[in-house]
Amino acid sequence: MPVQERIAALLPQIVALRQDLHAHPEILFDCHRTSGIVADFLRKIGCDTVETGIGRTGVVGLIHGRNGPGRCIGLRADMDALPIHEATGLPYASTEAGKMHACGHDGHTAMLLGAAQYLAESRAFDGTVAVIFQPAEEGGGGGREMCEDGLMDRFAITEVYGMHNWPGVPTGTFAIRPGPFFAATDQFEIAVEGRGGHAAKPHHCIDTTVVAAHIVLALQSIVSRNADPTQEIVVSVTSFVTESQAFNVIPQHVTLRGTVRTLSTEMRALAEDRLPKLAEMTAQAYGATARVNYMRGYPVMVNTEAETEYAAEAARAISGDCATAPLVMGGEDFAYMLEERPGAYILVGNGDSADVHHPKYNFNDDAIPAGCAYWVELVARRLPMTNAA
User: Fold this and answer.
1) Three-state SS at 16
2) pLDDT tens-digit profile of 166-221?
């Protein structure tokens, strides 16, 4: 049966599974229900190997082609949700208060499961496909933990591919770019200490709110005056917390928190160098002190050139075109997998939906056929059939 016809026949089952996952979101590594459903599904469709507990709650299924095991490529989907209260009003809305599939990982998991079922039925390829289901993409570093558990060597994966839905891109169409694609996501915390006291006697104090406000402004000079204007960098202070809620108290301490996003090692190093110096010297100028904790997060996600073109060719075969994706200053821990193996990450259109991480976001089930077909087409191109021995 042609790919599109078989996927169309599977669609009601895949949609039902996706909506069930949506109704039961799980956060970070606490993906026990989801990974259990995934593992059971992979066993039911006849995967040759199903292994669980990789990167804590990750699942990997191996599907061999008609001529037996051979070169292995990895296809990865993320499974975790976000700590957001859902506001969609959907009949299958989250049943877990304060948890929501607001980034479409339910759809990513369902699309890869649908593709896995087709691949397990057809076996129309040579070699092995590893379908990888990852927990804790949303800030937990599940991709890193799966790699540290030996994902690539354990299953002899030679190249690896990922996919994410993208609101604002026409449903079922694709976009990709070679090279740096998603940003490195570093974090910082700045503890400012001055001299607290009565708000009516500022001359007896070292006002930490004033000092911290000047630090916030000073940090913007990293982008405007230190960084090459042709390079991408974002410095955002996202939290300004004092120890006092009183109207008449100048606090002894203020804590600032924020994030730095970069798309090159040079800009990342620049920010890591300049941010502590600016914070500490600004505080010193006002008689205060600043202690800076700069924490590196996900690295830059870099698509390798050849694999990006392989992915684009597969996408064109499905939708007729593959657009050039924009640079994204958000982070993606598929970056860890791409640090270990060549590969590529592609966007599939979610249509005119709310943006990801929004309380009214919902994965568009109309994107499922294109997503499933893309995975199957990619396998056919990267592991083409040869004559049986």
Assistant:
1) helix
2) 999 999 999 999 999 999 999 999 999 999 999 999 999 999 999 999 999 999 99
What are the chain's domains? 3-178+302-382 (3.40.630.10), 184-298 (3.30.70.360)
Task: Burial-class residue 331 by CB neighbours within 10 Å (0-12, 13-18, 19+).
Answer: buried
Q: Which helix (H) or strand (E) holds 14?
A: helix 3-23
User: pTM for this structure?
Assistant: 0.94
Three-state DSSP class for residue 254: strand
Give the whole-angstrom CA distance, residue 277 versus residue 300. Answer: 24
State how far Cα 156 lies from the chain centre: 24
Judged by DSSP in three states, 136 sits in coil
| Helices marked H in the chain | 3-23, 32-44, 105-122, 142-148, 151-154, 208-221, 265-285, 305-319, 334-340, 368-382
Are 66 and 385 a contacting pair, CB within 8 Å? Answer: yes
Residue 228, class by beta-carbon neighbours within 10 Å (0-12 exposed, 13-18 middle, 19+ buried)? exposed
Asked whether the beta carbons of 120 and 47 are under 8 A apart, the reply is yes
- What are the start-end ranges of the E strands in 26-68? 49-54, 58-64
